[in-house]
Amino acid sequence: MPLPLPRLRTVVLVAGAALLAKRALHRRIQNSPLWPLPALEEPVSGHSERRTTATRRLLITERTTPAEGVVQLRLEGSALPPWQPGAHLDLLLPSGLVRQYSLCGDPADPDTYTIATRLVEDGRGGSREVHAQLHEGEEVEIRDPRNRFPLADAPAYLFIAGGIGITPILPMLRSVAASGADWRLLYGGRTRASMPFLDEIEKLGAEGGRVTVVAEDEAGHPDAAAALARTAEGTAVYCCGPEPLMDAVTAALPPGRTLHLERFTAAAASSAGSGPFEVELRRSGRTVQVAADRSVLAAVREEVPYVSYSCEQGFCGTCQQRVLEGEIDHRDELLTESERGDSMLICVSRCRGERLVLDL
Which of 350, 310, 315 is nearest to 330 (CA)? Predict the structure, then answer.
């Protein structure tokens, strides 16, 4: 049945008005100084091949204590993404904290990730939460493994670990031992009882005296310089542990050796360029003020709460953003020299001048 003439006229008028409004909005967008947004390159955050922001839930099927003050968790799923020695994952804790833990299990197991953490009473709270709240039968959320401490091919290896710093190195030891490579390990800790995986490691190095264990309560600190002096040219040196150990290894490294470091925490940042500055968010059309005692990330999240971030220490790369203008004061432990030219980790890095422009 045809519509009555007055009602038909109303429908036509409404449709016409909607079409005119749509065209006007389209013209307004085209005339905008930010148009067209797709002309800008794809933003870095959330898109880098180095990381993934996707999460998955795994079941804790085993909780053990491989040393005093250390908890090891076996996390199981199905057809998990593969990983190589040196890799770590993000653990999303029930409180909302995100912490990075090295994988110390078997890369050949497609359905299991294994992590271990030492209780740090005066830390930032992550290890306390793992020790107190994560138990067998519970589910945890993770982000898939990433590797910024990969095991490279080399004619010989020297591994130097301090305490819980053995976790990323343990899968490396299994790999080089199975391949028949030339390797040595210098492993230090407060006491033998506090050093995780000690029995397995000593069995791996039983032939040829490959493993040197130095417990502080028995023999003081490990002599990294002496161990390095006995290496041949071309040796790959892998070190993970407390900052003083890392500094000692770096200072004593002979020429012709390659050094690979994995840090527990970010190195102390320089105080230079710590004053206030402003940050323009080009895609968002906003400008934020960054106080001297605040991070760029904290200031940006007040305007763009969905911005990706994780470790807040300059390790994981989740908060990496492309910089369109301004001089960057890099304070991270991750970006390559080429990446530092036009991007920054906004959780720790700052501006050397008065203004930065981010592609955000």
Answer: 350
Query: How would you classify the pairing of strands 156-162 and 286-290?
Result: unpaired
Beta carbons of 222 and 188 less than 8 angstroms apart? yes
Q: Which residues pair with 9 in a beta bridge?
A: none
Q: Is the pTM of this model over 0.70?
A: yes
Give the H/E segment covering residue 198.
Answer: helix 198-204
Q: What is the mean pLDDT of each run of 10 residues along the chain (360 residues)?
A: 54 54 52 39 47 79 97 96 95 88 96 96 84 96 91 97 97 96 97 97 90 95 96 97 94 96 64 78 94 93 87 80 94 82 94 94
Distance CA 336, CA 49 (A): 14
Residues in a beta bridge with 343: 322
Host H or E run for residue 313: none
Reported residue count of the chain is 360
Whose CA is closest to 173, among 145, 144, 143, 199?
Answer: 199
Q: Is 64 helix (H, G, I), strand (E, B) or coil?
A: strand
